[in-house]
Fold this sequence. Notes:
The structure is a homodimer.
Chain A: H1 15-34, E1 38-39, E2 45-47, H2 48-51, H3 58-61, E3 64-68, H4 69-78, E4 87-89, H5 94-103, E5 112-121, E6 133-142, H6 150-166, E7 171-177, H7 178-187, H8 193-203, H9 205-208, H10 210-218, H11 226-236, H12 243-251, H13 258-276, E8 284-286, E9 297-306, E10 317-321, E11 335-341, H14 342-351, E12 364-366, H15 374-386, E13 391-393, H16 400-410, E14 414-417, H17 420-425, E15 427-432, E16 437-442, H18 446-460
Parallel strand pairs in A: 1-5, 7-8, 12-13, 12-14
Antiparallel strand pairs in A: 2-4, 3-4, 5-6, 6-11, 7-9, 9-10, 10-11, 14-15, 15-16
Helix pairs in contact in A: 1-6, 6-13, 7-13, 10-11, 12-13
EC number (chains A, B): 6.1.1.21
InterPro entries (chains A, B): aa-tRNA-synth_II, aa-tRNA-synth_II/BPL/LPL, Anticodon-bd, Anticodon-bd_dom_sf, His-tRNA-ligase, HisRS-like_core, HisRS/HisZ, HisRS_anticodon
Subunit structure (chains A, B): Homodimer.
Amino acid sequence: MIKPRTPPGTMELLPREQIAFQRMLDTIRRTFEGFGFLPIETPVFELSDVLLTKTGGETERQVYFVQSTGALGKLAESGAADGLPELALRFDLTVPLARYVAEHEHDLAFPFRRYQMQRVYRGERAQRGRFREFYQCDIDVIGKDALSIRHDAEIPAVIHAVFAALDIGEFTIQFNNRKLLRGWFEGQGIEGDAQMAVLREIDKLDKRGEDAVRETLQGEGFGLSAVVAERLLAFSRVRSASHDDALAKLAALGDGSPLFEEGRDELREVLQRLRALGVPEARYSINLSIARGLDYYTGTVYETTLDAHPQIGSICSGGRYENLASHYTKSKLPGVGISIGLSRLFWQLREAGIVGVAESSVDVLVALLDDAGLDHALALSQQLRAAGLNVETQLEARKLGKQMQYADRAGIRFVVIRGEDEAAKGVVAVKDLRRGEQFEVAEGELGSTLRVEREQWRAQAGLEAAP
Amino acid sequence: MIKPRTPPGTMELLPREQIAFQRMLDTIRRTFEGFGFLPIETPVFELSDVLLTKTGGETERQVYFVQSTGALGKLAESGAADGLPELALRFDLTVPLARYVAEHEHDLAFPFRRYQMQRVYRGERAQRGRFREFYQCDIDVIGKDALSIRHDAEIPAVIHAVFAALDIGEFTIQFNNRKLLRGWFEGQGIEGDAQMAVLREIDKLDKRGEDAVRETLQGEGFGLSAVVAERLLAFSRVRSASHDDALAKLAALGDGSPLFEEGRDELREVLQRLRALGVPEARYSINLSIARGLDYYTGTVYETTLDAHPQIGSICSGGRYENLASHYTKSKLPGVGISIGLSRLFWQLREAGIVGVAESSVDVLVALLDDAGLDHALALSQQLRAAGLNVETQLEARKLGKQMQYADRAGIRFVVIRGEDEAAKGVVAVKDLRRGEQFEVAEGELGSTLRVEREQWRAQAGLEAAP
């Protein structure tokens, strides 16, 4: 006998948690599709030489390699000298997207708007709330040669629509622009590689605090003067409180280098289009401390935080990059995109008590009082399914109390009962476990009645109508 | 520069193919939920010692092992002597289900009805139409200690609902019962291990043909007499043409051993309940040649074929088994289930010209004639999204002809145009690319008008209403 256990660092859910998770996935997907993003899926593994175009990074140290049984023996015989295994699990959805776009370039229309919601794999050290397998929900818009800044403005509208639909509390979409940052650094005499180093320090402000970052900036390696370091920190403190405040704060930054002005123009364009898109101004803010450590961002950068749960950190991040797939194609493919790490978010929301188990996906339990009623119960169940309801039939007669208890624990709302009295009258009794009510319906009207009840509740609960 | 390429044996789709595939997945999921099955997902990998409880089988030779970069070095140093890598990719959804049910036994209600639609991995030899990564869509009902035969009767009703909804042509659900087979074998003096061997030969009838199987049965190892072999083949030819014919053919088999009678009673029960469930009798048939080679089936067995495409073979198979998780728990967990190998089915349907690319998931392209119109186009797009439509906004002005061409190629049905004339009148022009018509609508009514058009078409096309 082997002890059944899930691998460390994976999130496996019980059915009612899985339903709650699936509803979040569905909501995100529906919203992405609402904005005209197209679905793609890529294989869980890539060829190792295709996936690992860069070497030695943190990411690569976390890569999972895959090999079939046959190849395993060969590798063991030959030792590591023979090179890497043929396959490796994807560690994000960005490298597979780059490979996909480069490989299918001639079959795609640009700008290419894709969404992708799949699991990714990282050999993280096992610890609470850190996952080795987790869902990412990504959108990206990829241009050919060029991509208008207007796409950067649409992205926060998608973020807004997603988190408004998920209904997990007030949130703020914060954004910045790395051109503005780097242009401003230039004005302070910070040039070249030092800019990236400073960017990474700024990015750590939330975690390390101002004092630690100030010390680093003035210390060895950076050697910024106290005045410049202080100016940098003051700059990083800029947050806007409203749309007009954002414009005013951008204006108050004074004149700067061409790169700085380009970044400022881009931020203004994003602000203008966001207003046209009707995104409520309480939901977005300029935050000049946002740098996003990843080296490949070059323009707009985004983070999103839950107002009541700042400790969760950014729940949706991304930005603009110059060239998606330079390792795979000579075509220049600039893009802008965001990612939601849904497994981690779900886990955090559950820890914070914001999401829990869902009602069952089963709407109706058709009870069975005695075996003679089975054929009728089966036919009635099919009638309810034809009306669009999800139905479980009790296939073995047992005490009604037991059946009620089962429905209650399972989160099933309606129990349909047909005893001798009801059969004689051509009706069924319906127990509504949510409302704690019982009522009678003519059999022929049962499907439409329960369907209406369900849709009314879904509408009240802010859920989409079910198909 | 590295040539971008997908790993051999994987199926990667372009967006419009992905949409077609996704619609099939959605239809299957909706149908499974309609019958009260609950979703679960398991990690893509399992601990190797948990996954590989049996050794030396065909399946294990096809297993993909997974190891992180660190572990890889260690394995290469120590050679294979150190044992298997820690993790392995799942090769089906049945072993993960067994592990899940055993691990979460005390948190589940039995009978446990679960569906699971995820990818599985097998290191198959690369060949056309054979996949190393493919979707399986499974349902199983798991009982504790016992599970009524009535569940076996519900399964074909699910199969019927799935393939009716997928609308890929006429199909036949064929079933048999291994108790009936083994009981009948007993009557012919075929006992013990020989029964399983004969079962496996019977299962090959379709592939090898009667002559080859007859020869094997009479040859060394089996040594059946010509009379018994002939009786066996005649028995295997039994197919029912209707519900009553099925009952008549079962009756005509004469009396048999207790095991035979048990199997026949079970088949009769399945037939009776299928009729109560309203499954059309043209859609199901008894076929006494179906044995399903897998050793773990013990009662009802199912196969499903497309009437016009017998060469595709079974598109949905499964059966009843005695004990799901004997490797992980002392609890006895009998079950019944089926599996649809959707990647392979999709590939075959595409080869046969039955499915192709889908219309776009994008309903509307909001065209842009000049940059001054952008803010209005953005606001209009949001208004359409609020009406439940999927909308792409053209963010950069270009010739209308180009925008039309783009929508046409992308499979987008509606293009919304607002030129000076339309703006003056407070209307927009709508080009319906499917009907080849153009009409004008007041801006305020655009959302509801297009929504109604879309729902009418979806209803005609037999698609579910979109949420």
